[in-house]
Amino acid sequence: MNNIVFIIDIKKDGKTKKEYQYSIDSWRNFCNKYNHQLYLLEEPIVDPKAMGVIWQRYFLFDILDHNEIDANQILIVDADTIVHPDCPDIFELTEDKYCLVHDDGDFDWIIRSMENYKHHLFKDEPLFNWYEYFNSGFQIVNNFHRPFFNTMREFYAANVNDILWCQKTYGVGTDQTPLNYLLRKEKIATKALPYKFNMSCLAAKEVVNEDMMHTKAGYVMHFNGLPDKDVSVPYWMEKTYKYLYG
Amino acid sequence: MSKNLIYMVAINHSTSEFLNSDYSKYAINSWKAWCSKNNIDFLVISEHDERYKFPVWNKDRIFEIVGDKYDKIGNVDSDTMVKWDAPNPFDLYTDEFCGVVDRGSLRWVMNSINQYSKFYDDSITIDLDKYINSGVTFFTPAHRHIYDNLIELYKERSNELDVIKGVGKVQTLLNLELVKTKTPIKFLPPSWNLFSIHKKNMFKHNWQLNLDTTPFFVKYAYIWHFTGFPIENRISIMKQVWDNFGHLYE
């Protein structure tokens, strides 16, 4: 069975964003190196007006079934990441657990998200440790997690109005915080991989600079949390890809 | 009965533009009250050892000063404050060396490692995910050799060490020494050494729900480390914290 790297690449105006293509190309290199398969979700499963594109990643197993892809482990990774060519084979680190990386960024945003979602949608769930909050932009799962993906979708279906209200009112994320609560509620065995495998909020770590220090800090660079993101994210993703891959 | 110690270096010195006591008084207030409440000895080193150019090196003298009489020791910076009702960190470990991973500025950390690695063999390398902040550490007398080695290193190479600027002094050397001596490390949650509070954006409270105006750093951390910003800001911030919460230590 294959291991799969799964990236959402739903086109806008028929085109992949230029910077996302760099992400895809870097992950294609990773897949070629370790003999894994790259899968791009290029069309939404349901109308994005009914369910945001990010939430649609929890159709993963249905998508794989529909395409008759028999997968061992699947890495779901955001298209604003670039993997370093020296990255080891991530799938060998998982111990068959649900693997994620703790977010290390703006904890005002994270804590407000945790508290606000709890207040409105997870009243009966305990508040968990803020430093154990996972970033959903990098998740490794396997077949054992099929039921949990159903849980995520069922939760969305049952609470869609409240979820959309929270998203719109507070601006504290889409699936990420519900994922954190539901992983704990469902007692899913998780493994936190080191920060180097999903380096979030790199700008705050002061390494995103013309000397390309961020390319020496770890293996998976996540270009979130950059100021002036409409300009900076395309700029740094292109520059990083060309620096690492020529 | 076990006896534990909190050790702090708080020295006014001509190499510093600001008086250490201008901010360490708030740190000392908090630790003194907390230690008293928890039956833990508290030792403040306010006299500089003239072997050293900069007062921060006095952190390494800990076992020269206290010997082996304590079961467990915490070495805390003079810009830290402990929350009035923090649980006892000495209950968190048995015999490991304890610290919090520091990636407040990976640029600073990576530059610092580049600068200080020359004092060690090429085989000694630091994993960035295991690099700890030295401002709050916990250990036992079994770790004495680490500090003996650091004192010896300074004795032999102080001329080279004291000219290095902008990448810290004791912290990266401690990390290199931990790697060299293959010391098992227990990584504590950041709530036990909350540094770069401004970059973590934890001076704020939940202004959206507005049910609780307690700043996040107070609400969700036990040891606050006021570092990463100019010293004049440190003085005013630590004063504000003491003015707002000092009565809770009584």
Instruction: Work out the helix count of chain A.
Output: 6
Name the shape of chain B in a single word: globular
Strand content of chain A: 15-25%
Strand order of the largest sheet of chain B: 2-1-3-6-5-7
Sequence of strands across the biggest β-sheet of chain A: 2-1-3-6-5-7
By secondary-structure content and strand pairing, the structural class of chain A works out as alpha/beta
Architecture (CATH level 2) name of chain A: Alpha-Beta Complex
Keywords:
A: 246 residues, alpha/beta, Spore Coat Polysaccharide Biosynthesis Protein SpsA, Chain A, six-stranded mixed β-sheet, two-stranded antiparallel sheet, 37% helix, B: alpha/beta, 7 helices, 33% helix
Structure write-up:
- The complex is a heterodimer of chains A (246) and B (250).
- Chain A is α/β, with parallel strands linked by helices and 246 residues long.
- Chain A has helices at 18-34, 60-66, 107-120, 146-170, 176-185, 229-245; strands at residues 2-8, 37-41, 71-77, 81-83, 98-102, 134-142, 190-193, 220-222.
- Chain A has 6 helices and 8 strands; from the N terminus they run βαβαβββαβααββα.
- In chain A, β1 (2-8), α1 and β2 form a beta-alpha-beta unit.
- By secondary structure, chain B is α/β, with parallel strands linked by helices.
- In chain B, strands 2-1-3-6-5-7 form a 6-stranded mixed sheet, sandwiched between helices. Chain B has a two-stranded antiparallel ribbon with strand order 4-8.
- Chain B is globular, with a radius of gyration of 18 Å.
- Chains A and B meet through α3 of A and α3 of B.
